[in-house]
Amino acid sequence: VILASSICTKTGKALASRQFVEMPRTRIEGLLASFPKLMVPGQQHTTVETDTIRYLYQPIGEEMYAVLITTRQNNIVQDMDTLHLMARAVSDICDVTDQQDVVLRGFDIILAFDEIITQGYRDNVDLAKLRMITEMESQEEKIQEIIENNKQREAKQELKRQAKMFDQQRREAAKRGMGESSMGGMGSSGSILGGGRMGGSYEPLLSREPEPVRSFASASPTRSNTPSISANARGMRLGRKPKGADAMGAMQNEIDLTQSLMDNMSIVDSTAAPAASAASRATPTMPPMDMKGVHVQIEEHIVAVVNRDGGLEQMEVKGDLSLVISDPAYANVQVGVVTNNKHNAQVKTHPKVDKRRFNTDAVIALKDAASSFPLSQPIGVLKWRIVSTNEDDIPLTINCWPSLSATGTVDVNIEYELTHPKLELNGVVISIPLPPGAQPTVSDVDGVYEVDRAHSTLEWQIPTIDASNSNGSLDFSVPGTDAGLFFPVVVSFACEKPYYDIDVSGITGADNEAVDFSQNIALIPDQYAVI
Description:
Structural class: alpha+beta
Number of helices: 9
Strand order of the largest sheet: 11-13-9-8-23-21-16-19-18
Radius of gyration: 34 Å
Strand content: 25-35%
Distance between the termini: 48 Å
Shape: flat
Number of strands: 23
Largest sheet: 9 strands, mixed
């Protein structure tokens, strides 16, 4: 077993180390510190041993070693191959001539070590596959970045609008103040210096400073979020206004506005995640099925992200075909498939599958006719990946149209359309975020709906969407003034037909006789949203 993989200096100082067995830090530091003392100058081989462990090392750069610490009973040939892969991986990740860069990229190095070695044993990976794994982009992170950018852009636009409104209110207040000041100069009581009311009859036209914008999180759904003038506020006292009050009031207004916008942004975050979780809870589970001696499993995962204007941000479908063979008599079967690659999918076969025969005859069979498939465990024999930037490739389109009305409400219209009639989507749930505490008024709905008050979402549920029920709509209204609160719209469903056109035409055994088999298909939406 491999005990640890490390990067250390020529003096034995650890720069990055990953232990694969239970071992305290002082123990690994001690092993690495004693490693340079065991090296014999001028020796040709790059291994040294003690009574219990073996060091395998390879110089990287001029001042560092890649070190593999194993037990003496380990396969030294395999360990040398693992060591070479480690050294090449470290060279790809960081500058091996700079120890500081190795330390800064230590986390990436540890992740690479984890992909090469699992629980002390070498994984079946090469440098190309390791590069693909370490450079793989996170789809969820990209979606989150898109959502954050949209929220920041909307917050800036709202900030400009509110600032313009505050500036207009200040100008109107200044004009009214000048008018009252000139009238007060004609009074008999010297109201400019005394700051009193003119003849005791002055009523305030505007408060000393506008009331701060109320927090969106605490505002009632029926209450407007725009700043209002308090009718019970103190009057503007002429001559008593402190120096710099305009600047301080403007600063306070901007601080309150920024806080309210941050509260609004937090509402979007708090409603997006519960909508996804509520939708996932509502997705029906596939019923168990009776598996025969040969079972075929086709599973696809789809990611589709569309912006609120209808543009496709991202779409990817990953699928695989797996075999589960429980009868030893069918351990060397041949699977015939029918495909129609109209989506330009990237298709790959398992390394032990005869790729040439698959390309010519569409038959999945082992290269070595004398070998057999593993029993009672799923083994993937075919994989495919579809990436598209064409909006027509989206299987289910969702259009959400929130619009502000003159009565202080937001009217929302949501439509769905199935663009791939061969698919049949069951248990569809479309989750729409709502303002906190709001009670929607639904005027028209195809299907049923319910309001999840705990997560402030409206769950639109359609039992089945297929060719006979390919479109539908939902209309509702909610008190409010922000049309952006109704995104992201999250969709979940269950589907027993693949997006990629593939089907099993038949399975034959070693004697070319037809084999009865069972099959299940699942299209799973990992991320399906309108942002």
